[in-house]
Protein backbone atom coordinates (compact mmCIF):
# COMPACT_ATOMS: atom_id res chain seq x y z
CA UNK A 1 0.00 0.00 0.00
CA UNK A 2 1.04 3.59 -0.48
CA UNK A 3 3.28 5.54 1.86
CA UNK A 4 1.68 8.75 3.22
CA UNK A 5 3.41 11.57 5.10
CA UNK A 6 1.02 13.65 7.24
CA UNK A 7 2.13 17.14 8.28
CA UNK A 8 0.04 19.07 10.80
CA UNK A 9 0.93 21.08 13.89
CA UNK A 10 -2.19 19.78 15.69
CA UNK A 11 -1.33 16.46 17.35
CA UNK A 12 -5.00 15.39 17.52
CA UNK A 13 -5.35 15.83 13.75
CA UNK A 14 -2.12 13.91 13.12
CA UNK A 15 -3.17 11.08 15.40
CA UNK A 16 -6.72 10.75 14.09
CA UNK A 17 -5.68 10.90 10.43
CA UNK A 18 -2.84 8.44 11.07
CA UNK A 19 -5.27 5.99 12.70
CA UNK A 20 -7.75 6.32 9.83
CA UNK A 21 -5.12 5.78 7.15
CA UNK A 22 -3.39 2.89 8.93
CA UNK A 23 -6.80 1.23 9.38
CA UNK A 24 -7.34 1.74 5.63
CA UNK A 25 -4.07 -0.03 4.82
CA UNK A 26 -1.71 2.89 4.22
CA UNK A 27 1.82 3.13 5.56
CA UNK A 28 1.84 6.37 7.54
CA UNK A 29 4.41 8.69 9.04
CA UNK A 30 3.54 12.02 10.61
CA UNK A 31 5.41 15.13 11.65
CA UNK A 32 4.34 18.45 13.13
CA UNK A 33 6.06 20.98 10.88
CA UNK A 34 7.49 21.63 7.43
CA UNK A 35 11.22 21.36 8.12
CA UNK A 36 10.74 17.93 9.72
CA UNK A 37 8.60 16.92 6.74
CA UNK A 38 11.39 17.79 4.30
CA UNK A 39 13.91 15.80 6.34
CA UNK A 40 11.52 12.84 6.52
CA UNK A 41 10.83 13.00 2.77
CA UNK A 42 14.56 13.07 2.06
CA UNK A 43 15.04 9.91 4.14
CA UNK A 44 12.00 8.05 2.80
CA UNK A 45 10.16 9.80 -0.04
CA UNK A 46 6.39 9.37 0.40
CA UNK A 47 3.93 8.55 -2.35
CA UNK A 48 1.55 11.18 -0.96
CA UNK A 49 2.07 14.28 1.18
CA UNK A 50 -0.98 15.33 3.21
CA UNK A 51 -0.18 18.78 4.59
CA UNK A 52 -1.99 21.40 6.59
CA UNK A 53 -1.72 24.86 5.03
CA UNK A 54 -1.45 26.91 8.22
CA UNK A 55 1.45 25.93 10.42
CA UNK A 56 4.02 27.90 12.40
CA UNK A 57 7.50 28.20 10.92
CA UNK A 58 7.37 26.92 7.37
CA UNK A 59 3.81 27.30 6.10
CA UNK A 60 2.05 24.49 4.30
CA UNK A 61 2.17 26.51 1.09
CA UNK A 62 5.96 26.79 1.35
CA UNK A 63 6.32 23.11 2.18
CA UNK A 64 4.17 22.06 -0.75
CA UNK A 65 6.15 24.21 -3.20
CA UNK A 66 9.40 22.76 -1.89
CA UNK A 67 8.16 19.16 -2.01
CA UNK A 68 6.86 19.59 -5.57
CA UNK A 69 10.27 21.02 -6.56
CA UNK A 70 12.45 18.41 -4.80
CA UNK A 71 10.21 15.37 -5.18
CA UNK A 72 8.16 15.79 -8.38
CA UNK A 73 6.63 12.31 -8.22
CA UNK A 74 4.99 12.93 -4.82
CA UNK A 75 1.26 13.64 -5.01
CA UNK A 76 0.17 16.43 -2.68
CA UNK A 77 -3.09 16.90 -0.82
CA UNK A 78 -3.38 20.25 0.96
CA UNK A 79 -5.75 20.42 3.91
CA UNK A 80 -7.14 23.18 6.03
CA UNK A 81 -10.02 24.07 8.28
CA UNK A 82 -9.71 27.71 7.23
CA UNK A 83 -10.74 27.20 3.61
CA UNK A 84 -13.92 25.58 2.44
CA UNK A 85 -14.81 23.63 -0.63
CA UNK A 86 -13.11 20.96 -2.67
CA UNK A 87 -10.98 23.15 -4.93
CA UNK A 88 -7.33 23.77 -4.20
CA UNK A 89 -7.01 27.35 -2.88
CA UNK A 90 -5.51 29.82 -5.35
CA UNK A 91 -1.73 29.95 -5.14
CA UNK A 92 -1.35 26.51 -3.52
CA UNK A 93 0.63 24.03 -5.63
CA UNK A 94 -1.24 20.94 -4.42
CA UNK A 95 -2.89 18.33 -6.61
CA UNK A 96 -5.96 18.10 -4.37
CA UNK A 97 -7.58 19.77 -1.36
CA UNK A 98 -9.26 18.27 1.71
CA UNK A 99 -11.33 20.44 4.04
CA UNK A 100 -10.64 19.38 7.63
CA UNK A 101 -13.67 18.25 9.54
CA UNK A 102 -15.56 17.04 6.48
CA UNK A 103 -16.42 13.48 5.54
CA UNK A 104 -13.29 11.37 5.94
CA UNK A 105 -14.44 9.11 3.10
CA UNK A 106 -13.71 12.01 0.76
CA UNK A 107 -10.11 12.02 2.01
CA UNK A 108 -9.85 8.27 1.38
CA UNK A 109 -11.18 8.81 -2.16
CA UNK A 110 -8.54 11.49 -2.76
CA UNK A 111 -5.82 9.16 -1.49
CA UNK A 112 -7.07 6.39 -3.75
CA UNK A 113 -6.96 8.78 -6.71
CA UNK A 114 -3.40 9.77 -5.80
CA UNK A 115 -2.18 6.21 -5.48
CA UNK A 116 -3.93 4.46 -8.36
CA UNK A 117 -1.57 3.59 -11.18
CA UNK A 118 -1.82 5.94 -14.12
CA UNK A 119 -2.84 4.02 -17.24
CA UNK A 120 -0.25 4.01 -19.95
CA UNK A 121 -1.27 3.75 -23.55
CA UNK A 122 0.84 2.17 -26.21
CA UNK A 123 1.09 4.12 -29.42
In short:
This protein has four helices and five strands.
Lateral arrangement of strands in the main beta sheet: 2-1-3-4-5
* Category by helix and strand content: alpha/beta
- N-to-C order of helices and strands: EHEHEHEEH
Q: What is the CATH homology-level superfamily?
A: Response regulator
Q: What fraction, in percent, of the residue positions are helical?
A: 25-40%
What does this structure look like?
The chain is of the alpha/beta class. The protein has a single domain (3-115), classed as Response regulator (Rossmann fold), CATH 3.40.50.2300. 37% of the residues lie in helices and 20% in strands. It is built from four helices and five strands, in the order E-H-E-H-E-H-E-E-H. Strands 2-1-3-4-5 form a five-stranded parallel sheet, sandwiched between helices. Strand 3 (48-52), helix 3 (60-70) and strand 4 form a beta-alpha-beta unit. 30% of the residues are buried. The mean pLDDT is 89.
Compile the SSE list and pairings.
Blueprint (H helix, E strand, L loop, with lengths): L2 E5 L3 H13 L3 E5 L2 H10 L4 E5 L7 H11 L4 E6 L15 E4 L4 H12 L8
Parallel strand pairs: 1-2, 1-3, 3-4, 4-5
Helix pairs in contact: 2-3
Which properties best describe this structure?
Rossmann fold; 123 residues; globular; alpha/beta; five-stranded parallel beta sheet; single chain; 5 strands
Amino acid sequence: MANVLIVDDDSLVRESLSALLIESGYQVRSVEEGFSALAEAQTNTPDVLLSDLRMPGMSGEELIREVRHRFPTVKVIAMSGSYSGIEVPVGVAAHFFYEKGTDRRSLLRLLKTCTEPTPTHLM
